[in-house]
Model the fold of this input.
Amino acid sequence: MAPRANWKGFLRLSLVTCPVALYPATSESEKVTFNQLNRKTGHRIKYAKVDADTGEEVANEDIVKGYKVDTDTFIEVTKEELENVALESTRTIEIDEFVDRSEIDPRYLIRPYYLVPDGKVGHDAFAVIRETIREMNTIAIGRVVLTNREHIIALDPLDKGLMGTLLRYPYEVRSEKEYFDDIQDVKVTKDMLDLARHIVNQKAGHFDPEKFEDQYETALVDLINQKRAGKPIAAKERPRGENVVDLMDALRKSIGNEAAARDSKPAKKPRKAASGQKEMLMPISGKKPAKEAAAKKPAAKPQRKSA
Done:
């Protein structure tokens, strides 16, 4: 099934305009999710919208937005009033400026999107904007409205398209001073730095996302498989952290440990053909079981709906 665009509108650089669509660049749909259940019946918990004073359920058409002024005082804002303050960026990503990529503080980054031409027209204008950004080796900064809020968006060429990254406003980023002021000023000796650099050199590599596995996700899948198979669940012993008494000794031991770990490192595992999850005994809601598993395993007994 083709992904659905989060937003459709126009990308504009001065008088150059083209229709575009914005798609989320990441997904968490493959992660294991849980429902809340009634322990006594096994049925799902359903949440109802109720009046805080009367306790009566309220219909969706009777629910409006309100801004809290005081404990029991709210300013009601209607849908029509919110539409009246809608900005031009609701339908257009206007490129305001071009900045050096090194100037964007990582704390301002929120989430990535893919920006592509929408439909068969506008590909030429899209290519002109994309290649101009690429040629200048800069990041284009614009504005876009998602979920009724205006966001800053940074546009960066990626292959044949553009990657748009939403940025935070300054008031959303906390100052580091309130957290770092209490950190003690410590004199780090040259010997300590030399040992630490040696450890870093031993661990030097290249970033490859395929090397990383979500161990918690794997543990969740294993837990579910064991419970479905009726196997007992044993608590695992947790590792305990130890206080470092002699920092120099700890650095020296670390060098030896890293060398031993490097020598005994197993060969890289082949890339998984599945979408990242281990095979389940029964498919989790929303997940498609592998065809091979379906062919090999007998049909499961029907179970009570609880998820």
